[in-house]
Design a protein that fits this description.
The structure holds two protein chains of two kinds. Helix content of chain A is 53%, strand content 6%. By secondary structure, chain A is mainly alpha-helical. Chain A has three domains: 127 residues, Fumarate Reductase Iron-sulfur Protein, Chain B, domain 2 (Orthogonal Bundle), CATH 1.10.1060; 156 residues, Glutathione S-transferase Yfyf (Class Pi), Chain A, domain 2; 122 residues, Rossmann fold (3-Layer(aba) Sandwich). Chain B has a single domain, classed as Fumarate Reductase Cytochrome B subunit. Classes of the chains: A mainly alpha, B mainly alpha. At the A-B interface, helix 2, helix 3, helix 8 and helix 16 of A face helix 1, helix 7 and helix 10 of B.
């Protein structure tokens, strides 16, 4: 056994807990989880059945933690997990799993499959079976500050443009602000309008905010790769900055995995509860809407549907804010059948969008057919979402299928129609 | 060993051994699984109506929206099989007598003709579900020896029980002994196979419900 494999198996043994044991013992091989997974529904290939993606972890559990499994191991009747097998599983655990968690919502015996995938990735990361795309994004985040290699001077430059475009000051490193605003690289590079939108809304609402020059990146590739050690390093930057600046709240950007990283995994990674609140931007916007601060000068007339990002809604718990907010700004919002916590993933979450092999891209395009169908069935030309990573993936999907659908970001849409 | 001796063995020492292995097995497995524990979630919880471990224990008994259409045999077959089998086990007169002998509790039974019909429906459902397992690519792909084996050890007690009451194929004494033996095999196999989901599914649903309720998501 190679040293890395040994470490990987050890990591898997470490992550196995009572829920995982209970889940594996409960599985009856009914295959219903496949029906909830877009990689199965859009390809018809049974290997994408969610519970199958965990087979090596299941065997480690059986061989290490059950009496029968240990007996089988002693007499040589069990099949050990090998490097070759984990290598083969890389596609199943990363390329074809976005950790969207839809499988966990339908399993009749109650298995939280995505909980297990997240844990399984710990072993995959330690044993070196991680796609290059996510590995390098993680490396850039740890060494440079963000997954796209952005450094502060570049961010400061973008902020300068935002100030010029909005005529509003963007405070940096200001202690005692109400909100420490976090961003994702994707927003800084591709959707700086998001920052403009925030500045306008904060100004209108009279809320103080700041950015931190040493903690602006909210995404956490360490979580996507499955390395809690690296994830902790990344999340600690935010915690340190928030505590140093003594802010009351940390504002997660639209980006879904960023929200998951800071809101739900963050305190568990650093090993203590936070002394500040973590708020998703939509939660804040909905609060402002309820206070009557978020008044619109007009509404968008185009019929449109909403794409609920998995990590914010189904897995993040921001269930109630998106619909009232879209209704606030859109006259013809059409609720789709599988909405809110039942929504289908864009196909690019969980680090998948960072994998740029030909196979992974082809698979993503196939998986995107479900979004295409949702748009076509609703008969709309506009879709609104609130996650920068979903936006990139969806735009790639539109390009691939040569669709003329317009994709809008919810926060920007609200800012655009905000009463002057 | 003649038929009567065989029957006497299955009703005496055989039953004791099977019930003993079943009880100790269940206890052992529950300890093995649930003493692994889990880490406390340090993130500040969000509260939402309908989100808790207990909600999910009940909610998962119904298909989530859209799922019934995607796999009707799994749901309809699953309901019929589990409910009808429970009726046979707990409302068949000889079974109530056995339970009364073991633990002293008893309740009214359903007429034997009805139980016979229930057994036929249960077996027909099991055959349909087996066909679905063979036909459906995902189920076939996931299936291992254990799936076929546990189907067989579940089917045999129903088949032999029905055949004994209908006086088919073998003399009653012999068939009854085979029925009891097959039920004993089922008891022995249950804690150490996927049949154990009958115990762990409550824990699994609770954990899933609890973990997601912490984030304010009713699952």
């Amino acid at each position: 056994m190679s040293a890395s494999l040994e470490k990987g198996i050890h990591a898997l043994k470490e992550v196995i807990d009572a829920p995982i044991a209970s889940y594996f013992e409960s599985c009856v091989h009914c295959g219903l989880c496949a029906e909830a997974c877009l990689f199965y529904t859009e390809t018809g290939d049974p290997k994408y059945t969610p519970i199958h993606k965990l087979e090596p972890l299941r065997r480690v559990y059986e061989q290490e933690y059950t009496l029968l499994g240990r007996l089988k191991k002693v007499v040589g009747l069990s099949k050990p997990v090998t490097d070759a097998e984990l290598d083969q599983w890389q596609e199943l655990v990363y390329d074809s799993c976005t950790m969207c968690g839809r499988c966990s919502l339908v399993c009749p015996v109650g298995n939280d499959i995505v909980y297990m995938v997240r844990k399984f990735r710990e072993g995959m990361a330690v044993s070196g079976h991680v796609p290059d795309g996510i590995r390098s994004a993680t490396k850039r985040t740890v060494e440079l500050g963000g997954p796209m290699g952005l450094k502060w001077p570049a961010v400061a430059n973008v902020l300068k443009h935002v100030e010029e475009n909005t005529g509003l000051k963007i405070p940096v490193d200001q202690a005692g602000a109400d909100y420490l605003v976090l961003l994702s690289s994707m927003e800084i590079v591709n959707y700086p309008e998001y920052i403009e939108a925030l500045a306008k809304i904060f100004h209108k609402a009279g809320i103080s905010f700041t950015l931190a020059s040493d903690a602006y990146e909210a995404t956490n590739a360490g979580i996507q790769i499955g390395s809690s050690d690296l994830a902790k390093v990344i999340v600690s930057r935010i915690v340190d900055a928030a505590e140093k600046l003594k802010v009351k709240n940390v504002l997660s950007p639209e980006c879904g995995h960023a929200y998951m990283a800071i809101r739900w995994e963050g305190p568990n990674l650093v090993g203590r509860p936070f002394g500040f609140n973590v708020v998703h931007v939509l939660e804040l916007l909905d609060e402002l809407r309820l206070k009557g601060v978020l008044k619109m000068k007009d509404k968008l007339k185009d019929p449109l549907i909403l794409h609920d990002p998995c990590q914010i809604v189904r897995r993040g718990g921001v269930l109630q804010a998106p619909e009232p907010l879209i209704q606030q700004v859109a006259e013809n919002y059409i609720p789709i059948a599988d909405k809110q916590k039942l929504n289908w993933c864009c196909g690019g979450g969980g680090g998948a969008s960072a994998i740029h092999t030909e196979e992974a891209e082809a698979l993503r395009a196939k998986a995107f057919k479900i979004k295409k169908r949702q748009i076509e069935e609703a008969g709309v030309d506009t879709m609104v979402t609130f996650c920068a990573n979903c936006r990139i993936t969806i735009e790639e999907g539109f390009d691939h299928y040569e669709m003329n659908t317009k994709l809008l970001g919810l926060t920007e849409l609200l800012a655009e129609h905000l009463e002057d | 060993m003649n038929d009567l001796q065989f029957l006497t063995w299955t009703r005496g020492p055989g039953l004791d051994i099977a019930v003993g292995i079943f009880l100790l097995g269940v206890l052992w497995r529950l300890i093995e699984i649930y003493t692994l524990g889990r880490k406390k979630d340090l993130a500040a919880p969000r509260h939402a109506a309908g989100a808790s471990g207990l909600h999910t224990v009940f909610r998962r008994s119904l298909p989530p929206p859209g799922m019934l259409k995607r796999s009707p045999v799994s749901y309809v077959g699953g309901y019929i099989f589990h409910i009808w089998l429970a009726i046979i086990v707990f409302l068949g007169a000889p079974h109530i007598l056995l339970i009364e002998n073991l633990v002293g509790l008893s309740w009214p039974a359903l007429p034997s003709q009805f139980i016979g019909l229930t057994a036929v429906v249960t077996m027909a459902t099991m055959v349909v579900m087996l066909a679905d397992r063979i036909n459906k690519p995902v189920k076939r792909f996931l299936s291992t020896f254990e799936d076929w084996f546990t189907w067989t050890v579940t089917f045999l007690p129903v088949l032999t029980g029905w055949m004994a009451t209908q006086h088919l194929l073998l003399p009653y004494t012999q068939m009854l002994a085979l029925h009891i033996l097959s039920a004993e095999i089922l008891l022995v196999v249950l804690p150490f196979s996927k049949l154990f989901h009958g115990f762990t599914l409550f824990g699994s649903r609770w954990y899933n419900g609890r973990v997601n309720a912490h984030k304010g998501v009713p699952v």
